[in-house]
Amino acid sequence: MKKSGLSPILNYNINTPIVFVAIVLFFIIFTPNHLFIDLRNLASMGKLIPDLGIVALGVGMLMICGEFDLSIASLIPLCSYVFATFLMKGINPALALIILLPVGAALGFINGTIVVKTGLPSFIITLSTMMFWRGVVFILSRMAPISITKYIKPYPYFEKMLTGTIGRFPLQVIWFVGIAIILGILLHFTKFGNWIFATGSSKGAARAMGINTNMVKTTCYIIIGVLCAVVGTLQSVRLGSFFATQGVGFELKTIAAAVVGGTSLRGGVGSMLNIFLGILIIKIIENGLILMKVPVFGVEAFIGLAIILFVIINNFTQRQMT
Amino acid sequence: MYISKNINPVNTIITMQKIQFLLWVQVLQILILFSKGMKKVKKIMIFTIAVTFIVSMLFIGTSTAEVGKSAEEMYFRLVTHGGDDPFWAVVAQGMRDAAAELGCKAEIDFSGGDLAKQQKAFLEAVTSKPDGIALVINDDTVWDKPVEDAIAAGIPVIGINNDDTKGPVGNARLCYIGQSERRAGYIIATRLFQEGEAAGVDFATAHVGMAAEVPGAMYATVRSQGVKDAMAEYGITSFEMIDAGGLEATTVEERQTAYLIANPKTTFFLGAGGICTDRILSSLKAAGLKPGEVIAGGFDTAPGTVEGLKEGYITATIDQQQYLQGYLAVYTLYLYNKFGLTPNVDTGGYLIDTPEILGVIEELSGTYR
User: Fold this and answer.
1) How far is CA A312 from the centre of its chain?
2) pLDDT above 90 covers what percent of chain B?
3) What architecture (CATH level 2) is domain A7-321?
């Protein structure tokens, strides 16, 4: 059972912060002309990383709870499509986003209910729902992109609030960090957070202690659904369009980010700060390798190697600590 | 239900002749039946009359179907490698419009770039015995035998969107409807290099970057060959293909932006496909570049590409008029069934680089263009 307070964030699995600092220093020193810390590069990363990062925070929290959610890759474009549809019907974008949040929650609730009621592996259940919702998006949208620029233009404050900049500093960073703080407080400083760790560590023991593990898991799925609604909106406002291909590939990248951040695939182990850093590590490696002009087909190979390396190191460290 | 699927009108004529022969045999047998004597022979005659009558009825059933099969009774399948791309929405729209006009049924398969999945879809399509298949031939060897076998089984197969690099010599498909990818790559690159020439670019030191959603895929490889053809004419030697990381827009933008920041000597930047071209505007802006600093262009007319053209960041794009690939695929298969026609149509290479053309395109972008 985990301890409450700051100790689980700072003391548990110090590897991730060390690796993060090492990676950043490496790319600062070795990228040509130190391009890694070029303001354009930092601004670009700040603008784009939150698309994956925000939803990865929720996926990481769910993994601590002992489950997976692959369907985010389809929930994001589905929420984006619903948002675009609301705009085309003349609904104010801010109101559209507010209405969309419970829609996302409902989609997450469906995932959670199926997982807890059937007792089947969540990997398979959410893989199926991912395929199902992707098909729904294709049928509804006929894969045609929908330009939403003209619907957003009359509401400049909404666009600025979501995707604006203060100088070069993109506001998406504030959304990303803010959501990480909220989920971090929820995970590490509330009773519900304790229940998440207990459920992930040992479902049987958690139930014996009177924890409603089904409710805990379903709530985590609902949180992910809401985050998908946020990301779907954020992404389509920034892109200026809805694309049916939004979120493709996110399902595995979010899991990889959580694992690099020290989250155990078996559940019960992890921290929100490390998940946050894990997301940054994955994206920084991708960015840094391109800046270093790694051969075009080598980027994916290096990212794969880096993930394996971190998983091995984290696993080794966890065994040493236990 | 048909005994055979004869799609060649010549076969229909032969069948009619067979029916006529059988009918004359029956008439002769009836005449013998009514003659006096030969009781045993008459019993045999009655039996053979019945058999020939049944056989001729079956032939008539077939020939009626062969000669008179209407568009409403026809069913076509489009087997593609697309799906995760707004480009294919337009192809599907063309297919639907053509099917609605003809009154026939048509369906489209998507494999999201997965060749194995596409092969499976093709075999399933063949099993469903459609009146024709339109196939994206995105490999020079993998489709040779399946297409040959399908045609031998009486199912007409045409190529759309991508073709064997050796054309009809390399694959048995009946005809091809789509863009000549190499020519399209040549056209867009030439247009960009003309812009560079007007701007006084030194071609000896110029660098061309080309971002591809799936770098190893045939569309990217063949288009880049066209680009290199144009490079050779202008004396440009530096070229790099960029792995844009797939079809996900954010990933594509991340990679393109990082590349542009890391390679400030990039003179020309192309998107090999619709998603990469769509993200060029955002990538150039994020890299701190102004319109014209990097001469950019690409393919298709996704919303971001249209914006890029309007803002001057993108010089030109190629519209491969993919609507026609779906629309003409259905019509071609219908007309092949009817008259045996096999037209080859180059739908592409339509250059969009003026405000007038752009105005038309913008209205239709995403649905018909």
Assistant:
1) 22
2) 59
3) Orthogonal Bundle (1.10)
